[in-house]
Amino acid sequence: MPDRLPHDKSCLIVDDDQPFRTRLGRAMEKRGFDPILAESVAEAVALINEHAPSYAVVDLRLEDGDGIEIVNKLHEKRPDARAIILTGYGNITTAVAAVKAGAIDYLAKPADADDVQKSLLAPPGEMPEPPENPMSADRVRWEHIQRVYELCNHNVSETARRLGMHRRTLQRILAKRAPM
To answer: To which CATH superfamily is domain 2-121 assigned?
Structure first.
């Protein structure tokens, strides 16, 4: 797959989760990309204005806006750029908005670097190969609960209310490790 990389291998990675952003940056570097890391919409837009990268991996929800703004800005500066959106809290509406903005794929977090690479390098108009090890249904559920919990500022009662579950059930789920 690395032989399909264009000459310019710059890859903007935008995520407000610093450990994830750093891990994905290292993994993409090992796969032949030149990662450029940013943690916010403002920082990403400034980097795009300096030098619009060939590729972008952008989190949908950031503290100062959303990743769709970044994809729009990237395509203004460099129409041939290939971008994918990552999200821990996806739905059909945001997936459609991401594709309309020019994202070539929409992946659930935490995305595997191999899946990110496959999406970025898939020939235009073709779908990337399905993931080798997709997340289990239990893991997807756990990720969704964690995301809602985070959005509720770690308030167990509010999270339980929004998820429509009993508070004690939620506490038991939060106390366990993530399923594989």
So the answer is: Response regulator (3.40.50.2300)
CA distance 86 to 17: 12
CATH 3.40.50.2300 placement within the chain: 2-121
Distance in angstroms (rounded) separating the CA atoms of residues 176 and 107: 25
Distance from C-alpha of 15 to C-alpha of 178, rounded to nearest angstrom:
21
Q: What is the pLDDT of residues 122-154, one digit of tens each?
A: 877 676 666 666 667 787 787 788 878 888 888
The C-alpha angle with vertex 178 and arms to 174 and 180, in degrees rounded to 5, equals 155
Written as six digits, the tokens of 141 are 């559920």
Per-residue pLDDT tens over the stretch 47-83: 999 999 999 999 988 889 888 999 999 999 998 899 9
Sorted by sequence, the CB contacts under 8 Å of residue 41 that are 6+ apart come out as: 14, 62, 64, 65, 66, 67, 69, 70
